[in-house]
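Hey, can you fold this one?
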Amino acid sequence: MSKIIGFLGILSLLMYTPSAFSENSRGYEVDDYSVDTPVAQDVAVKPQKTDGGFDLYSGISILLNKISKSGSINTKSEFLDLSNDHDMKSKVDYSAYTKASKNNWFFSNDRTITIFGGVHYEVINKNQEAQKSGGFGSYTWVYDDEKASAKNLQSALEEMQELTGLKEFTNVSVPQNIRKLGYVNLKLSMAISEEATEFLMKLSRHSKFQERLLKFGVEKNKAQMIKGCLNYQTDEGTDPCVWAEENKLRSNLYHMVLLLREMDLSNQAKRFSDFAAAYSEFGSYVIRDQATFQTFLKFTKGKGIELTFDVAGENIGRVHRQIAN
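Sure. Predicted structure:
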């Protein structure tokens, strides 16, 4: 039986791969979220086309080749284990929150896609007994442009950095001396391990968890909120703006805790489709803004979160970076 580790891998959103470029891979430090060792994880199962419009591969690596609007994807699949024991099979429940925008102007053909997926899997023997099971998640943000310009690439990079706060990790020098960059793909991925998933679900059982998480989030983001509110000062200074940002963060974290509890209850009741659906909805709050995303990263530090950043294109060198804890 193949070794199953909790990792959704990278949600690869393109059915084609850019040509090869020089690669740079190293460890990075992002605020106090510092890691160096990538985590490799896989599950050997047969690819299968689903009604959701994408291929579900081993380790639950997913290709969504056509996402045209925001919404959700839900699927249930079964696969034979092809590694060494054909009597073993994997049952997989997958749900994803998706958000997409596409520009098809005459001189441009670009899209930005956001996906947060939640998975539950079971490995079952010939007697229908579960040998292993677990849940994990993944987030992917992608900018894809067939006729990219330096201006558009820079704008997309800044959009992603503003959403995540990962400016140091994703900082690259966009070439200004090349008028036409041709095809460009910019991608940020986050893999959420089984360990991190279990950690959060167990904490959600405690009555003080919500209060603790809200306090943690405000403390970790207060300085950035004040800085971001400097351009929105009133006669009362930055306080009204900061209060509004704090309330927005509290609302996001509040809903995240409720969904973690739903995930935990669904998992215990073996309602795995509900678990996956709650996980993807949980993720839709994690990625709503920089403060919420950073709270999630910092709160789960040391629990098996992996970040991957890639840039590739026809006329630019390839960049590949990973951090994992």
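The two ends are 26 Å apart (CA to CA). Let me know if you want another pass with a different chain boundary.
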